[in-house]
Specification:
This protein is α/β, with parallel strands linked by helices. The chain is about 40% helix and about 25% strand. It is built from 15 helices and 22 strands. A seven-stranded mixed beta sheet has the order 15-16-17-14-13-19-20, with helices on both faces. A five-stranded parallel beta sheet has the order 10-9-8-11-12, with helices on both faces. Helix 9 crosses helix 10. It is globular and about 80 Å long. The model has no long low-confidence stretch (mean pLDDT about 95).
């Protein structure tokens, strides 16, 4: 078992207590341990971040870009080892973990380019001999709380625009998957990031959440995770001036119309529903199918599910790995059991694999449910596992109504050859991300990303939109006449 230190004030530090990291493909032996930081450690991280911000906000944008570009290069050079650790602590396949590492590098490279651009514009002024403009400035110390399902991409998605804008960051990675975030911190540190600009706090939320949120130096909080935690954080900050960004839950739907390419739709739904064992905020979990093609589409989707091969993420031939933890596995199985008790039928999967070699891991077989109605919990609640529910409709209008029958509004997709229906769907589906003839997942670094309603806050992530969250606007008028 490896012992890892964390980055604080430009130094790699440890504490007297540790948190074990487990491989979800085999829980018997810890694979690493990281420091279990205390409230005092959090206070020191804020001290370092305050000092780091004083340096970083005055650092040339071109130097920021150089550091971020070099860090991206280091991630690419270290992709093999990083991907192994991502897979080992989270359960992703080697291919998924490799793609995540490359995408994290893409975020750093993209925002390195953005950092070189000016953040502002020249404005007309009614006063004579007066030149007015506005400019964007960094906020200060920003707290980033990231989840276990994308343990490298999500920190990179948040850190890259945060750093490009000139802020200092305190990063709190998920307790289940801290190694990935430490790889990102190592790359930035080795690329020359000044001391204190990034501080990684590893620890148990119950012990350090209040010190992280209550520090008077906190200017903004970006959170990705559950609605329960996100809403608690939003409420805790409501009486403060701390800015909040939340990327929360989803119950994403894919519509398959009668004129769709059914084979392509089935492959896309299987990819969106079962990749990463369904542990993606943009995973498809509801599939709304017009009745004339319901049976044929179901047959094709069941064949896609049957073709998946479960196993450890690093094992040759694995196409779907385990869930992140026994807690997550048991929660998904309980959701399936409840759906069956409420009237759903299991068309595929629905249990743990029978293979004894997988008995010590957190596996759930890829699951397809039929006989689903809108009053079932499985229709409304996020499962966050490899579970897809089928739901028949007669008309396009019913399909859109079913998509919007949710408190969430993250992602939706439609498969059709009718351009009119495609455009109608993009207008009428109440989600922040809309796909036509492709998956609900897979948005690139420059695509603004975020949901509506209970799926998040008004601030989008990714693309230039992310800078709105990480900067404040200052308007400047200069009178140059006599």
């Amino acid at each position: 078992m490896r012992t890892l230190e964390t980055l604080s004030g430009g130094e790699w530090v440890a504490t007297g207590e540790w948190i074990d990291v487990h491989d979800p493909s085999d829980l018997r032996t810890p694979v690493a341990r990281v420091p279990a930081m205390s409230a005092a450690d959090v206070a020191r991280a804020y001290d370092h971040a305050e000092q780091g911000f004083a340096t970083w906000k005055r650092t040339s944008p071109f130097e920021r870009a150089r550091i971020m570009t070099d860090a991206a290069r280091l991630l690419r050079e270290r992709v093999g080892r990083i991907a192994e650790d991502v897979s080992t602590e989270m359960g992703k396949t080697r291919a998924e973990a490799t793609g995540e590492t490359i995408k994290a590098a893409d975020f750093l490279e993209y925002y390195a380019g953005v950092a070189r651009q000016g953040y502002g514009t020249l404005l007309h002024d009614a006063r004579p001999e007066t030149r007015t403009s506005y400019q964007r400035e960094p906020l200060g110390v920003v707290l980033l709380i990231t989840p276990w399902n994308d343990p490298l991409i999500t920190p990179a998605r948040k850190l890259a625009p945060c750093l490009a804008a000139g802020n200092a960051a305190i990063l709190k990675p998920a307790t289940d998957t801290p190694q990935s975030a430490l790889h990102l911190a190592r790359a930035l540190h080795d690329a020359g990031l000044p001391a204190g600009v990034l501080n990684v706090v590893t620890g148990r939320g119950a012990q350090i959440s209040d010190p992280l949120i209550a520090d008077s130096r906190l200017r903004a909080l970006s959170f990705t995770g559950s609605n329960e935690v996100g809403e608690a954080l939003r409420a805790q900050l409501a009486s403060t001036s701390v800015r909040f960004q939340g990327e929360l839950g989803g119950k994403n739907a894919t519509v398959v119309l009668a004129d769709a390419d059914l084979a392509a739709a089935a492959k896309a739904v299987a990819n969106a529903g079962f990749a990463q064992a369904g542990q993606r905020c943009t995973a498809t979990s509801r599939v709304i199918v017009q009745r004339p093609v319901y049976d044929e589409f179901s047959r094709l989707l069941l064949a896609e599910a049957a073709a998946l091969r479960l196993g450890p993420g690093l094992a040759e031939g694995t196409t779907m790995g385990p869930l992140v933890s026994a807690r997550q596995r048991d929660g998904v199985l309980a959701d399936i059991e409840r759906a069956v008790k409420q009237g759903a039928s299991v068309l595929a999967g629905g249990d743990r694999p029978a293979d004894e070699a997988l008995g010590h891991g957190c596996y759930v077989t890829p699951t397809v449910l039929g006989d689903v109605t809108a009053d079932l919990d499985i229709w409304r609640e996020e499962v966050f596992g490899p579970v897809v529910a089928l739901y028949p409709v007669d008309t396009f209008e019913e399909a859109v109504e079913a998509v919007n029958d949710s408190v969430f509004g993250l992602a939706a997709a439609v498969f059709t050859k009718d351009l009119g229906n495609a455009y109608r769907f993009t207008d009428e589906a109440e989600c922040g991300q809309i796909a036509v003839n492709t998956t609900t997942s897979g948005w690139d670094v420059h695509h603004p990303f975020g949901g509506f309603r209970d799926s998040g806050s008004p601030f989008k992530e990714q693309g230039e939109e992310a800078l709105r969250f990480y900067t404040r606007v200052k308007t400047v008028a200069i009178h140059f006449g006599a």
